[in-house]
């Protein structure tokens, strides 16, 4: 029996000593795939049929592999490898979605949906915004500041300022090439009133999955493992931002107040959480006329005419009041004789646009002082047309970006 | 005289190996009863078993010397619920040997990892999975599918959504 003689050979090799790999045995035994077997291979068995079928890799091993990839690719641009894994096939996508934690847990942006999920509680996600005046475009990048090599900066979102007759729109998209509302890259927008003192932020899809569940066949429940069904874009009022009229023209940051309609106050209480989407609804350009277009009187529209009674008139998930953000009060610096905000080095150029937002809470809520003091959103200038944006829980990148964009609109009544 | 264990592959070939070599496999170590030294391995082909034995032989020789701490102790200490990688091979010569060992095509690697997983040879599983992870990194989905012979089972609709997701990932400026 040829194979028995091979076994004898291995025994002899052992007896002969030597720990180095013997090429002779390798070649003869055909241990390398390239080498080829000396002896004719037996009839194809059930074993052989299973070979090479990586699609059948046991789930615990697949999990292990993708975990290794995830751990080694923490930052961009390498992180995009994970999107490669998530696009191989269904089982790989499932495992990748399991392995990649949302930003709140891991502090990393991975999938586009990460832009609509809250940042970690303990430390902010740091980004910067570049303004391109010639095209009225604003680009949001991940990172502390522009890197020396432009291609290393990860573009998260882009916005374009569009003037209308009685308002200004900041249209927000996943890409800087396409700001059409019908496009699948459309994420949302911030629309101002005539004076530029009040803005409404609209999300193109419900801010969390709960609002979408229904028996409607076009509204299949969003499963983050599945790549999602076709639905047309909506307009969900997720925040209202007001700038205080500063009639006295006093110097200092403008007074801002943001009512986050999709984030309950309870989210910053002890043990609180904020609902967030786990997957995108991808839009397809079919029959946009089914869904009424936004008009000023009715800011929130229903998903479709056959949606359930609990239609999205309001996006509040609970009866709780929405979280309100306001400017952090500056401290009087005795020595410098001025009002100061500590931007911790992330803002270096004085500008009326610079601000820090904290939660506005009343004492009846169970929110610690430390929590109240936390800067949830910080925005400020570091150079010509470059601004930093640091945001933390419970805000998402999209919401933070939208709020910062409103700062770019000139407000004659406020300055 | 070292105690011998007989391993029988799926296609009927018998391999006699020293106990310490065979015991690189935790499964074998557990089931070797006093009397029966013949262990049938119906799901492992000869071709693969030979490669696995080669690996075990190499690592048994190293593990028997306490100069480089055996990873099996570290592995035993760690919990089974978390993914804990066994200690990286500290001996550079052994590492070099390992790297040569895994210079195989993906089909062969698959066979080895399945067998190593079945036999519970943790270091070998680690080695192969690390190699696979390295082969995945930096590749787009299509390339991964091609390399690993995986079928694309997304619907055309889903494909389109994935393309958008991907273009977001790869865009800059």
Automatic annotation (TrEMBL), chain A:
Highest taxon of the lineage: Eukaryota
Compositional bias annotation for Basic and acidic residues: 1-16
Signal peptide limits: none
Domain F-box stretches: 54-96
Region called Disordered, residue ranges: 1-52
Positions of the Tubby C-terminal domain: 115-410
InterPro entries, per the entry: F-box_dom (IPR001810), Tubby_C (IPR000007), Tubby_C_CS (IPR018066)
Family listed: Belongs to the TUB family.
Entry protein name: Tubby-like F-box protein
């Amino acid at each position: 029996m040829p194979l028995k003689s091979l076994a004898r050979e291995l025994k002899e090799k052992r007896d002969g000593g030597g720990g180095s790999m013997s090429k002779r045995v390798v070649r003869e035994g055909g241990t390398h795939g390239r080498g080829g077997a000396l002896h004719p291979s037996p009839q194809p068995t059930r074993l052989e049929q299973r070979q090479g079928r990586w699609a059948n890799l046991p789930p615990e091993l697949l999990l292990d592999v993708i975990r290794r990839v995830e751990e080694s690719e923490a930052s961009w641009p390498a992180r995009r490898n994970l999107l490669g894994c998530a696009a191989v096939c269904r089982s790989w996508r499932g495992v990748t979605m399991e392995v990649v934690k949302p930003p709140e847990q891991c502090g990393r942006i991975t999938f586009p949906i990460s832009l609509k999920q809250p940042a970690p509680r303990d430390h902010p996600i740091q980004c910067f915004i570049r303004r391109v005046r010639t095209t009225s475009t604003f680009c949001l990048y991940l990172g502390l500041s522009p890197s020396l090599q432009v291609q290393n900066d990860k573009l998260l979102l882009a916005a374009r300022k569009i003037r209308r007759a009685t308002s200004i729109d900041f249209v927000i998209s996943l890409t800087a090439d396409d700001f059409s509302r019908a496009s699948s890259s459309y994420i949302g927008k911030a629309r101002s009133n005539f004076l530029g003192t009040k803005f409404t932020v609209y999300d193109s899809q419900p801010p969390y999955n709960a609002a979408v569940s229904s028996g409607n066949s076009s509204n299949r429940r969003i499963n983050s493992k599945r790549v999602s069904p076709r639905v047309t874009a909506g307009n969900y009022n997720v925040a209202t931002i007001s700038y205080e009229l500063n009639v006295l023209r006093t110097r200092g940051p403008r007074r801002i107040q943001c009512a986050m309609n999709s984030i309950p106050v309870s989210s910053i209480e002890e043990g609180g959480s904020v609902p967030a989407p786990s997957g995108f609804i991808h839009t397809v350009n079919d029959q946009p006329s089914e869904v009424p277009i936004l008009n000023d009187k009715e800011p929130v529209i229903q998903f479709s005419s056959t949606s359930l009674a609990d239609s999205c008139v309001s996006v509040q998930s609970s009866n709780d009041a929405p979280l309100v953000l306001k400017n952090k009060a500056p401290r009087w610096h005795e020595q410098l004789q001025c009002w100061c905000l500590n931007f911790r080095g992330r803002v270096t150029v004085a500008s009326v646009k610079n601000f820090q937002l904290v939660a506005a809470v009343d004492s009846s809520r169970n929110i610690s002082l430390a929590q109240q003091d936390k800067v949830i959103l910080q925005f400020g200038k570091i150079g010509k047309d470059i601004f930093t944006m640091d945001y933390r829980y419970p805000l998402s990148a999209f919401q933070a970006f939208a709020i910062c964009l409103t700062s770019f609109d000139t407000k004659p009544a406020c300055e | 005289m070292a105690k011998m264990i007989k391993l029988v592959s799926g296609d009927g070939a018998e391999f006699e190996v020293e106990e310490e070599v065979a015991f690189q496999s935790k499964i074998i170590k557990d089931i070797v009863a006093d009397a029966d030294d013949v262990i049938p391995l119906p799901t492992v082909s000869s071709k693969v078993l030979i490669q696995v034995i080669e690996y075990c032989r190499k690592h048994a020789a190293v593990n028997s010397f306490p100069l480089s701490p055996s990873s099996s102790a570290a592995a035993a200490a760690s919990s089974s619920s978390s993914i804990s990688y066994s200690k990286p091979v500290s001996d550079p010569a052994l590492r070099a040997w390992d790297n040569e060992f895994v210079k195989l095509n993906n089909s062969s690697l698959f066979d080895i990892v399945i067998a190593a997983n079945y036999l519970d040879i943790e270091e070998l599983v680690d080695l192969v999975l690390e190699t696979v992870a390295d082969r995945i990194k930096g590749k787009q989905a299509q390339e991964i599918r091609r390399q690993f012979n995986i079928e694309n089972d997304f619907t055309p609709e889903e494909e389109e959504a994935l393309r958008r997701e991907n273009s977001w990932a790869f865009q800059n400026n």
